[in-house]
Write a structure and sequence with these properties.
The chain has 279 residues and is of the alpha/beta class. It is built from eight helices and 15 strands. The strands form three sheets. It has a seven-stranded mixed sheet with strand order 10-9-8-7-11-12-15, with helices on both faces. It has a six-stranded antiparallel sheet with strand order 4-3-6-1-2-5. A two-stranded antiparallel sheet has the order 13-14. The longest helix has 13 residues. The protein is globular. The structure holds flavin-adenine dinucleotide and FE2/S2 (inorganic) cluster. Flavin-adenine dinucleotide (FAD) binds next to strand 4, strand 5, helix 2 and helix 3.
């Protein structure tokens, strides 16, 4: 019988530094056949572990078309993630998953898509953004609004330049605090609303970032005509098992690890206000 708790070894092929505290790891499973069949969807997460140190949920930032490669963007937040930041190409981590639900994809073909991210919120969205770009002609207008505290905290800076070249894709960036290198917008991500037309009746929004950002972004989206069921938010909660057994991640009657991490705002509104902690 398959034991869900047994992780699979994966080798770090390369490491990309995104900012002072964030790195993207490009991984290949030691068992290459597993890498080819590792069947994940954009929005899902994996449990990453270092033996003897710990385990944490991390969103997959690559897209399924990149298999057998698996990419994870990790911020050094505590014991495990700081230890992962010490690793070098050729070192090993362990992976189990993929877990959780995913962003809507097939069902939103033909519609306008709006991605709104803050800080380390872009990595989970990058998986669906890359998938959409792989089938660009299947979707209508695409807008990506991304903000970070400082210019050097923006992830995927070089890749974003290539996104800006794709037809009918608008990418707007902002930082809370500019430095001499920054020529762009200064202000929180919602200040980008003044720079573009966000009004829609059937657009689909994907949102990831800190709770305070999510709260104000939802308000802005509602004012622009987005329906609650068309706003998809990915949540972070403390997790242990990742598979609906331990109860660490529950909000109301939902487990974020199996019912989420992606929820529509329509679903979130039904959960207890204090526990959902976003709006
Ligand atoms: C579904 C999901 C997807 C995630 N995706 C990513 C990702 O793509 N990249 C990434 O860098 N991180 C991601 N995280 C957050 C990541 O899991 C935590 O930063 C990690 O668990 C920290 O582990 P640690 O042992 O290094 O830190 P710890 O020593 O456990 O904690 C360090 C600090 O972070 C806080 N913390 C730990 N876990 C969480 C959490 N879940 N929510 C809020 N605060 C927390 C602690 O209170 C403490 O202040 C995700 C979390 C979830 C639930
Ligand atoms: S993490 Fe154990 S139930 Fe969700």
């Amino acid at each position: 019988m398959k034991n869900e708790y047994i992780p699979h070894p994966a080798i770090i092929e390369s490491i990309q530094k995104e900012s002072f505290d964030t790195k993207t790891l490009r991984l290949v499973f030691e068992d290459r056949a597993l890498g080819n069949s590792f069947d994940y969807k954009p929005g899902q997460f994996v449990q990453v572990s270092l033996l003897g140190v710990g385990e944490a949920p991390i969103s997959v930032t690559s897209c399924p078309a990149q298999r057998p490669i698996l990419e994870l963007t990790i911020r050094a937040a505590g014991k495990l993630t700081r230890a992962i930041h010490e690793l070098e190409p050729g070192d090993m981590v362990h992976i189990r998953g993929p877990y959780g639900n995913c962003f809507p994809f097939e069902e939103v073909k033909g519609r306008d898509l709006y991605f709104v991210a803050g800080g380390i919120g872009l990595p989970p969205l990058r998986s669906v953004i890359k998938s959409v770009f792989n089938q660009r002609e299947d979707f209508a207008r695409i807008k990506i609004l991304y903000g970070a505290k400082k210019p050097d905290e923006l992830c995927f800076k070089e890749e974003i330049k290539t996104w800006q070249q794709i037809p009918d894709v608008e990418v707007l960036l902002t930082v809370d605090e500019a430095d001499e290198s920054w020529q762009g917008n200064v202000g929180v991500v919602t200040t980008l609303w003044d720079k573009t037309d966000m009004v829609t009746s059937d657009g689909v929004a994907y949102v990831c970032g800190p709770p305070i950002m999510i709260r104000f972004v939802i308000e802005k989206l509602q004012n622009c005509g987005f329906k609650d069921e068309n706003v998809h938010i990915t949540l972070e909660r403390y997790m242990k098992c990742g598979i609906g057994k331990c109860g660490h991640c529950n909000i109301g009657d939902k487990f974020v690890c199996v019912d989420g991490p992606v929820f529509s705002y329509g679903e979130l509104k039904k959960l207890p206000e204090k526990e959902r902690a976003i709006a």
